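Weekly modeling sync, notes
Attendees: AB, CL, MP (scribe)

Item 1: holo prediction request
CL wants a bound-state model with F0G before deciding which constructs to order. AB pointed out that an apo prediction alone won't tell us much about the pocket. Agreed to run with the ligand included and paste results into these notes for async review.

Input as submitted:
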Amino acid sequence: MVIKTSDGREFPVEMHKARMVQKISLIPAEDRLKAIKEAGYNTFQLKTKDIFLDMLTDSGTNAMSDKQFAGFMTTDDAYAGSMTFYDFVDAVKDVLGYKYVMNAHQGRAAEHLLAKTFVKEGQVVPTNYHFTTTKVHIELPGAKILEIYYDEALETKSTNPFKGCMDPRKLRDVIKKYGKENIAYVRMEATTNLLGGQPYSMANLREIVKISKEAGLLTVLDGSLICENAYLIMQREKGYENKTVGEIVKEMCSLFDIFYMSARKNTCVRGGCIATNNKELFDKITPWLPVYEGFFTYGGMSQREVGMMTVGMREMTDPSVAGSAVEQVKYFANRLEEVGIPVVTPPGGLACHIDARKFLPHVPKEDYIAGALTAALYIASGVRSMERGTVSMERNPDGSEAYADLELTRIAIPRRVYTVSQIEYVINRVEWLYKHRELIKGMKWVSEPPVLRFFIGSLDVLDNWSRELCDAFKKDFGKNL
Ligand code: F0G
């Protein structure tokens, strides 16, 4: 629920209560400096004992409902033929409208199975935008991902409500240029993650699917963030204001040949799935399931997780779940914008994204702008966010750096975990950081793995700026905060 205060502000109200809590603590700035140094200035390498608010991701970090925990207790652990799996199949049929379903241990495992089955060397995969793991799974067999968004998608400050749309004109050009046989499938991603959690519209989805089907192409929907996209369509697209999130989700799914998701976001459970109504396509994927994931009735997940996911699937279209992150992101981004911080607008799902290029205009692109800002935010607050810029890119085949379209520091909002007052804390520290932004300089690699380097790579700061930033913080806040 959102209330309007007497001065006209919108304020998200949590539609749940905390019945169990986990203690968190804030270590002092000096210790944070030590921790981030030891982590190679990579927030993935921090230990949670050193983190105050963990806003790295909304993946696997959401609060589950009491009913989901109950689902954990009443599962059927059978290796084969588990009734828990068949309950899950029923939930997918009811919520998404697909008949044929398989589990996978998480979203990227589903991507692996799809790439293994449908992607061949030399082919292309047009998409509204890539996700890190998606790109790797498509490129490993020797194919290429083509991002064919509208140019406006890369404008971080915008009023376009649907920056996650695919450009239909570009799709037609791609079909003409490459031909049906060289296009593995057309992929749409809900609440486009790396564009800053931006949705597509239903009108666009319909147009893209129509063009694809006319050309005889397979269509794939990455629905890892499907409920947030549906919630934003309900709020922003004409004709959808009186539809429910559940109806919009089902309408989206009805358009696509294949659906897959990371369950770690919308259903709040570690897992994933692939679903379709096309038995022939399903039968092409299934042989690989026991090879890479597990038997057909658990697909790499534990039955307990499948049980919790079944409940999560039925709960995820409730607007108080689907809108929980969206409304907090909106509040967060609007407040930051109000105090002059450059954030991605309009606010989308998943996270509040700071435009690091605008925040740190003095840092050159070669010096990993968003990486530096993400490390600086941790030093100034104990808040763990994630770099979504050049550090998160793969190098070009010739070894040269592939600069990201956007340099974002993503401050994720796990569902039903943090309160508005905790978000106010982050706003307060981001404001302080903005006033001291001149102190932040760039970074350089110390150790750089060959693939998905952002996970375990380590970096160092240029000119020892982290020391200066820490000292400035202590001067203003004392040595205990
Ligand atoms: N697709 C999208 C759109 C995602 O956001 C993710 C994961 C995946 C696929 C892969 O799923 O992690 O379950 O293997 N996003 C996480 C994030 C990692 O932090 O945004 P996974």
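Recorded for review: Residues 57, 59, 106-108, 131, 133-134, 189, 193, 222, 224-225, 262, 264, 272 surround F0G (CB under 6 Å).
Action items: CL to compare against the apo run; MP to circulate these notes.
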